TrEMBL record:
UspA domain sequence ranges: 1-136, 150-288
Family stated for the protein in its record: Belongs to the universal stress protein A family.
Protein name in the entry: Universal stress protein
InterPro entries xref list: Rossmann-like_a/b/a_fold, Universal_stress_UspA, UspA
Organism of this sequence: Streptomyces phaeofaciens
Length: 290
């Protein structure tokens, strides 16, 4: 699908950075920009905005000011706005349904591991079937320069990472950037070997050559589809999260796949995506598996 790039804004510095990032990406991809703000009536607000109409007016004014800044920077960009009364997580997840991607602000490094996204961000990522990009306050266009790569994690079979690879190659093509495709591997327990897997490893010449071939196979269709995109194949022994973060310093965007897991305390987005979101300094795109 090809829809607008949707940015969720709430007036915070991080959401304004997300809006700026979304606007730049919309211009690169020749797409429209949709700006969404979810608000809830606060009856105990200050006296001058204590009624519903006044609060909605205040919210709309704040959104319009943010959009005016974007429109001034990108005069040819088509921008629409939606101010919706409702729960933020549900509103944003709904807004993502017909979007090319949803862009949100992230608070940055949290004091307690596991609370970087907060309940809204984690729920939105887990619920939507569209890519979600997290942008921190202070993110600047200057990070999107030549030499900074689109880093993407690849794991499993080619089809397992196809959505993340597609997103990475599309982004790199729009920016004229290099894709660094990262595949991490670890030594499996000896009891995990089967006669079939042993034969595959033997045919490949060992574990590392096998992993390199697996990455090359996964990349082949995307290299053919985007021949203009330069690709670096990066295979390294270690945990996926650690290997991805080891190259984060050269990334203008990191792309990871995710499978959402349901637990008794809510949706979880997986350890690799969670770890990268918590520690990477650049924007991170979380792309759901098909």
């Amino acid at each position: 699908m090809t829809g607008p790039i949707t940015a969720g804004v709430d007036g915070t510095d991080e959401s304004l950075a997300a809006l700026a990032w979304a606007a730049r990406e919309a211009v690169r991809r020749d797409l429209g920009l949709r700006v969404v703000h979810a608000w809830r009536f606060q009856p105990d607000a200050a006296a001058d905005v204590a009624d519903r109409q006044a609060q909605e007016g205040w919210v709309r004014d704040a959104v319009e000011r943010a959009v005016a800044t974007v429109a001034e920077r990108h005069p040819g960009l088509a921008v629409t706005t939606d101010v919706v009364e409702g729960r933020p997580a549900e509103t944003l997840a709904g807004a993502a349904a017909d979007a090319e991607m949803l862009v949100l602000g992230s608070r940055g490094h949290a004091a307690v591991v596991g609370f970087l996204l907060g309940s809204v961000g984690q729920q939105v990522i887990a619920e939507t079937a569209r890519p979600v990009v997290l942008v921190r306050a202070g993110d600047k266009a200057s990070s999107e320069v030549a030499g900074h790569e689109i880093v993407v994690g690849q794991q499993g079979e080619p089809q397992d990472s196809a959505p993340a690879l597609r997103f990475a190659f599309e982004t790199a093509a729009a920016r004229g950037a290099t894709v660094r495709a990262v595949r991490a591997w670890t030594l499996p327990p000896v009891f995990a070997y089967s006669p079939a897997s042993l034969k595959l490893l033997d045919d490949a010449g060992g574990l590392e050559p096998y992993e390199k071939k697996a990455l090359a196979d996964a990349l082949r269709p995307w290299r053919e589809r985007f021949p203009q995109v330069h690709v670096v194949e990066h295979v390294e022994m270690g945990s996926a999260g650690q290997v991805l973060l080891s190259v984060a310093g050269r990334a203008q965007l990191m792309v990871v796949g995710r499978r959402a897991h349901r637990t008794a305390v809510g949706a979880r987005i997986g350890s690799v995506a969670h770890g990268v979101l918590h520690h990477a300094d650049c924007p991170v795109a979380v792309v759901p598996h098909d």
